[in-house]
Amino acid sequence: MSGQRSSVRLSELLSGDPVDVAPRLLGKILAAGPPGEETSGRIVEVEAYRGEDDPASHAFRGPTARNRTMFGRPGLLYVYLSYGMHYCCNIVCWPEGRAGAVLVRALRPLGGLEQMRSRRLRARRDVDLCSGPGKVCQALGIDRAADGTDLLSPGSGVRLVDDRSGSVEGIVVAGPRVGVAAHLLTAGELWRFSVRGDENVSRSGSASGASSARADPVVQP
DNA sequence: GACAAGATTGACT
DNA sequence: GTCAATCTTGTCC
Predict the structure, then answer these.
(1) Which residues does A65 contact at the CB level (< 8 Å), separation at least 6?
(2) For a Cys staple, A32 with which of A18, A140, A200, A208, CB 3.0–4.6 Å?
(3) Hits for CB < 7 Å against strand B across A residues 51-110
(4) Nucleotide at minimal C1' distance from the A65 CA
């Protein structure tokens, strides 16, 4: 079936340097939950983390019980608890044994909106449902139990889908990562990628929500 | 064993 | 724009 072909395409798309893979994930669909209760959204903001080459990455100091999944094969989901309150999900992309992943920061809600609203009671508007890494996991019902899930397996609890209708060519904006201490950022890095003008992009990444001076985002050619 | 830091969020001023 | 909440993880002694 074409589904198998698409997962082959996705596995190729997901393999490689996280900085190269991150913009390719924009426009793809992240879906979670069983059929009938599925929640899904189109990826509109991501950040690349280069493992042991990246001081800001959890994997910088090598594998631990928490980040073990990051050293797994491309296509696995790495979920961690942030600030003791929020889960954040990453998509592993470097080959097994080398840590590297792309953090999913924001989605444009597509399916299961009622389910998302019931999980995100504090969201006043639909654009607040998935406009941040912690919000994405809450809206999709992703927690630490989903760590290590194979996103390319159709039967998984969390899946990545390429419906080929989400092209973001020409509207990808690159910029420095947010929420990362300045001394941990790699000089000149533009490892955060978002869809230009999308209202679901997280507030800390939007121009109006910027609370401190940072480099201007650059539109990808 | 103790302590500090953190890939965030939301409420409040 | 500022700040508190909350708790896991990693480091140090």
Answers:
(1) none
(2) A140
(3) 56-59, 67, 70, 78, 80, 82-86, 88, 90, 101, 103
(4) C9
pLDDT top residue among A212 and A142: A142
Chain C footprint positions (protein CB, under 7 Å): 1-2, 5-11
Question: Phi then psi for A198, rounded to 5 degrees?
Answer: -75, 125
Sequence-distant (6+) residues with CB within 8 A of A27 are: A42, A43, A166, A167, A168, A195
For residue A192, the surrounding DSSP H or E stretch is strand A192-195
pLDDT per position as a tens digit, A153-210: 999 999 999 988 888 888 999 999 988 888 888 888 999 999 999 999 987 654 433 3
Are the C-beta atoms of residues A203 and A133 closer than 8 Å to each other? no
Q: pTM of the entire structure?
A: 0.92
Write out pLDDT tens, residues A111-133: 999 999 999 998 989 999 999 99
A26-56: pLDDT as tens digits: 999 999 999 888 999 999 999 999 999 999 9
Please identify residues in chain A, positions 158-197, with a C-beta within 7 angstroms of any atom of strand B.
Answer: 178-181, 184
CA(A71)–C1'(B5) in Å? 23
DSSP state of A61: G
How far does the CA of A218 sit from the C1' of C13, in Å? 46
Q: With a 7 Å cutoff on the CB, does A127 touch strand C? A: no
